[in-house]
Amino acid sequence: MEIMNPSHEQRLTSQEPPPRLRNLEGAVIGVISNGKENTIPFFDSVESILRDEYGVSEVVRRTKANYSAPAEAELMAEAMGWDAVLSGVGD
After folding, report:
1. Quick check: is 23 in a domain?
2. Where do the DSSP E strands lie in 1-91?
3. Per the domain annotation, does 44 fall within a domain?
4. First vs last Cα of the chain: how many Å apart?
């Protein structure tokens, strides 16, 4: 019998989460999509709600190169400049 370990190879380090935003007004929100078909209309609606109801100043939308793999290092580095990130899937 062979036992497989499905965990990701990357070693996680322990760190405190960043402080929560008090509100979203004026914030830059990043949206990372897996690129599947239904993510576009879904995130169109999410973006409208974020701008119209929460006063978000900018929504940055990016799509991973491979829907089933972790986001690329460059994308994660870019996300460090956003106030918050939403990640989503669609089929």
Report:
1. no
2. 28-33, 58-63, 84-88
3. yes
4. 35
Domain assignment of residue 13, yes or no: no
In a domain, 43, yes or no: yes
Residue 33 to residue 14: CA distance in whole angstroms: 26
Contacts of 24 (CB under 8 A, 6+ apart): 50, 54, 55, 56, 83, 84
Summarised one tens digit per residue, pLDDT across range 29-52 is: 999 998 888 888 889 999 999 999
Q: What pTM did the predictor assign?
A: 0.77
Range of the domain at 49: 28-88
Q: How many domains does the chain fold into?
A: 1
Distance of CA 52 to the CA centre of its chain: 20
Contact 26, 82 (CB under 8 A): no
